[in-house]
Amino acid sequence: MLLEGKTVLVTGASAGIGRAAAIGAARHGANVAINYHSDDAGAAACVAEIEALGRTGVAIKGDVADPATAQDFIARSVEALGRVDVFVNNAGICPFHAFLDMPAETVDRTFRVNLHGAYYMVQAAANQMVKQGDGGAIVAVSSISALVGGEYQTHYTPTKAGVHSLMQSAAIALGKHGIRCNSVLPGTILTDINKDDLADLDKRERMAARVPLGRLGKPDDLAGPIIFLASDLARYVTGAALLVDGGAFVNLQ
């Protein structure tokens, strides 16, 4: 019960890594507010699982690409749950596309969701934590793509590098307030974000074969690392980045 009595907020939590983190936090004793963009059924199912664990859950709809959504999510979460102890920035998109004819609107949307959305959400959560006066923890879901390139991800990899960098700088800015800021860098995780790209079974098997642990990741593989960084077990960890990729990044030979 690493988060007993804590209030945890998670963005993009109607499915995938965000959902796993939200339910994992509830398993460890937290009340949880989730942000989601459009999947009403998925958000309701996530809240139902949180409540089945005996915790309070609330779902708040909003597009993180709109800066006003950050203020709304924090305010409504505090109204429902009282405070913010842990903030998990997870919301993100990756519409795979070739570089040379990448539509400007695809680049713009990806940056606004992944990077601008992270900035304003983290800023709003941090302001609430500073107001409370007793510290907190922020965990951002970056990606292995912050460290390596991708032919069809030229718009995506810069945003994830930016999220990683944001946590490093925020760790410095917020350390004096007792707020720790860290990131997790998932490898290839089987979620809605890449289900079309990995529908090709041969490609999927090739990618899994490159992972030393022999498989692609699942959303639940991220819940433990996120909860660790959010918990007092990581009380002297800030500005860090934790690879959660089955060893893919180091497998170069």
Automatic annotation (TrEMBL):
Pathway field: Carbohydrate degradation; L-rhamnose degradation
Taxonomic superkingdom: Bacteria
UniProt entry keywords in alphabetical sequence: NADP, Oxidoreductase, Rhamnose metabolism
EC number: 1.1.1.378
Enzyme class: oxidoreductase
Keyword NADP: yes
Catalysed reactions listed for this entry: L-rhamnofuranose + NADP(+) = L-rhamnono-1,4-lactone + NADPH + H(+); L-rhamnofuranose + NAD(+) = L-rhamnono-1,4-lactone + NADH + H(+)
Keyword Iron included in the entry's annotation: no
SUPFAM superfamilies assigned to the protein according to its UniProt record, in alphabetical order: NAD(P)-binding Rossmann-fold domains (SSF51735)
Any single biological process term in GO: rhamnose catabolic process
Domain Ketoreductase positions: 6-193
GO molecular function, one term: oxidoreductase activity, acting on the CH-OH group of donors, NAD or NADP as acceptor
Family: Belongs to the short-chain dehydrogenases/reductases (SDR) family.
Protein name: L-rhamnose 1-dehydrogenase (NAD(P)(+))
Species this chain originates from: Sphingomonas turrisvirgatae
